[in-house]
């Protein structure tokens, strides 16, 4: 008799912020691992690298429009996805600012922009969409090693650091509120990576960071609860 062929559907990741940089690289790596991807891009009608991935992987990539800083768009995406189940929800979207700008120098408007984009909005997405991730799934966010309070011995990038530390705290609060579930949760530090956001002087290439980071996430699915991990799977101190 011929060997049986598995008919189980491929796992799917809901990847928030997948148009370029680390998010696009994550989408490509999950596709390489046999996953399907529903990725979000910001509106505006311009073609992104995620659209190229969709063309190259027919039927395996879906694209939704989302600006995470617009609560109405988050609510609309939640409604459009009603009834769907995702094996992983990962929020990658984020921004940086002038790294030399201290908390003494930053304007109120710039401070609000960074904090809303990097801390408040990712959590709003998670609060809205976590219902579509089962107990066997994983919810994760892209943070940074610079969000570690214990490791901050040099200062610099103060506003960005503060926004990622806030994101980490909000994720810890979210995990505490869901302590009775068996779901895995991850705060990821990808390292300093050469992207538009990381800049040309960053220590790591995307190829040195993202494939390993994806492997860490896949392994983390077997461990319930929240962990703060780097791209090599090492625990980052809070």
Summarize the structure.
The chain has 238 residues and is of the alpha/beta class. Helix content is 37%, strand content 16%. The protein has 6 helices and 7 strands, in the order βαβαβαβαβαβαβ.
Report on this model:
By secondary structure, the chain is α/β, with parallel strands linked by helices. It has helices spanning 21-32, 49-56, 71-80, 108-129, 158-177, 206-220; strands at residues 12-16, 36-41, 61-65, 88-91, 138-142, 184-189, 225-230. The chain has a 7-stranded parallel beta sheet with strand order 3-2-1-4-5-6-7, with helices on both faces. β1 (12-16), α1 and β2 form a beta-alpha-beta unit. The mean pLDDT is 92.
Supply the key terms.
single chain; 238 residues; alpha/beta; 37% helix; 16% strand
Low-pLDDT residue spans: none
SSE order: EHEHEHEHEHEHE
Major beta sheet, specifics?
Answer: 7 strands, parallel
Order of strands in the sheet with most strands: 3-2-1-4-5-6-7
State the end-to-end CA separation.
55 Å
What is the number of helices?
6
Structure class = alpha/beta
Overall form: globular
Strand % is: 15-25%
Mean model confidence by pLDDT: 92
**Cα gyration radius (Å):** 18 Å
Measured as a percent range, the helix fraction is 25-40%
Oligomer: single chain
Task: Compute the number of strand runs.
Answer: 7
What's the layout of helices and strands?
Layout lengths: L11 E5 L4 H12 L3 E6 L7 H8 L4 E5 L5 H10 L7 E4 L16 H22 L8 E5 L15 H20 L6 E6 L16 H15 L4 E6 L8
Parallel strand pairs: 1-2, 1-4, 2-3, 4-5, 5-6, 6-7
């Amino acid at each position: 008799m011929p060997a049986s062929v598995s008919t189980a559907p491929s796992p799917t990741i809901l990847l928030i912020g997948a148009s370029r940089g680390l998010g696009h690289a994550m989408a490509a790596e999950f596709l390489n691992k046999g996953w399907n991807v529903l990725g979000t891009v910001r509106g505006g009608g311009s073609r992104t690298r995620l659209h190229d991935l969709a063309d190259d992987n027919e039927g395996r990539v879906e694209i939704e429009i989302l600006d995470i800083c617009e609560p109405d768009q988050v609510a609309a995406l939640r409604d459009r996805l009603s009834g769907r189940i995702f094996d992983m929800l990962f929020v990658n979207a984020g921004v940086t600012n002038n790294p030399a700008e201290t908390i003494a120098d930053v304007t109120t408007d710039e401070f609000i922009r960074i904090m809303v984009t990097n801390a408040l909005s990712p959590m709003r997405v998670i609060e809205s969409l976590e219902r579509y991730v089962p107990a066997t799934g994983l919810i994760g966010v892209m943070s940074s090693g610079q969000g570690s309070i214990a490791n901050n011995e040099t200062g610099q990038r103060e506003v960005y650091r503060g926004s990622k530390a806030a994101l980490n705290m909000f994720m810890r609060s979210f995990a505490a509120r869901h302590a009775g579930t068996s779901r895995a949760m991850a705060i990821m530090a990808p390292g300093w990576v050469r992207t538009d956001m990381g800049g040309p002087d960053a220590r790591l290439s995307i190829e040195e960071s993202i494939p390993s980071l994806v492997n860490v996430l896949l392994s983390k699915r077997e461990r319930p609860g929240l962990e703060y991990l780097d791209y090599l799977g090492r625990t980052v101190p809070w």
